[in-house]
Amino acid sequence: MRDLFAFIFLLIAGILLVPVLVAAIYMEFSHIPSFVLPAAISGGIGIIFRKKYDEEGNLRLGEAMLLVAIAWVLMSGFGAVPYIISLNLGPLNAMFESAAGFTATGLTILQGAEGWLVEVPPHSMLFWRSFTQWVGGVGVVVLFLAIIPRTGRFARLLFESEAREERMLPRIKDTARYIYKAYLLFTILGIIGFVLGGMGLFAAVNHSMTGIATGGFSVTADSFAGYGGPILAVAIFLMIMGAISFALHRKAFDGNWRALLNSWEVRLMIGLIALSALALALDVGIKNSIFQTTSALTGTGFSTTGLIPGDWSSFQKGVLTVLMVLGGGYGSTSSAIKLIRSIIIIGTLLWIIKRAFLPDRAIVPLKIGGVEYEEKDVMEASMYAFIYIGFLIVSSLLIMILMPDWSGIDVIFESASAQGNVGLSVGITEVAPSPVKWILIGQMLAGRLEILPYVALFYKITQKIGLH
């Protein structure tokens, strides 16, 4: 796999060089070394790996999972260097901000941990934060597959290891390229919409990137609290588009709009947003309720109220927590459990109840929305939901032990936000001690790749040191 790591290091170098153009445009020349230095190191390592090793080998699923898990850690590590050099952040806080960016989470330490406000950093650093979310939104490996000359089983295993299975075109490489074309199209539409709504060009570019990525980083300290209705409407559109499967987008682009409108995931998404917004509207107003519920369910993290106010009730926080756990569509830029798994689990429960009233010999296939599901589909959905909730509970309990002054609902809210790659916060991230930040970083990374690649990495590490 060493030659594959060469491509990863070279890809990291290329990503780090993109903000150099922004720094040059805004004449922030003193910040250019913040990107060039880590890019040179990563690129140098990639070249060394590429020259020293030239192996093909047969990649197995376990190895693909390890490669993807390590790639995301490396990306976050190198991505932290600009924060250390330009903003003088400590290594842990820089790693936190970088991981939050690449995992499209949106939790940030720039609004409290070391005295920074989000408006203080230079344009190049603000762009870097947004760009990391744009890259991480559809996945580092998707970008990797879109540019490398590899196809076949190799590409398929890497694609699946990053929690993606939908193949819209015969070749995985073509699928990856299509995803980025659609992604870029929505980004451009978002920029145009924001500018027409009255937002400045720089803010529009950043918010469009983080909106379609369902990331949530903003270039203002209060996120979207200071913007009017037209801009909020564009943001809601981007968040929903980002949370819809790219496979459905392709069908819609091909003229099959009914596939989009008839999707159970889309219907459930709109229904949950509507019901949750109604539940919160009396307390926070219809505008805030629609925006906040959309932000929570899609895993974006944009906010019209800044941080979630401390005087919000446990019920209000609970509603948003449930939405953050459910997440958006499968094959989208959203994370968490995903709506299709919830649909399968609920459909299976109804199917079991229906079967209980029929003769034992009756053959009743499990059909949901006209699609027949097999036992393995139910097992996969149920098992992942179980693992996801279990990981969330354990992480939340650890944070409760380390931060006993915070209420249980606040801790679960913050933990669900990190693991669901959302970014809404009750303020825990700002004051979290180092162990809690590491827990949240672990949740962000694990949640982005649907946990299993990091379970595989942990298993391999313990195997290497002889623990089993």
TrEMBL record:
Tell me a GO cellular component. plasma membrane
Entry annotated with the keyword Ion transport:
yes
Q: Which Pfam families match?
A: TrkH
Q: Where in the cell is it found?
A: Cell membrane
Under Gene Ontology molecular function, one entry of this record is: monoatomic cation transmembrane transporter activity
Residue ranges annotated as transmembrane are 7-26, 32-49, 61-85, 126-148, 178-204, 224-248, 268-286, 335-353, 383-403
Q: What is its main location?
A: membrane
Listed GO biological process terms: metal ion transport
Keyword annotations for this protein? Answer: Cell membrane, Ion transport, Membrane, Transmembrane, Transmembrane helix, Transport
Protein family (similarity comment): Belongs to the TrkH potassium transport family.
Q: What is this protein called?
A: Cation transporter
Q: What is the lineage of its organism?
A: Archaea, Methanobacteriati, Methanobacteriota, candidate division MSBL1
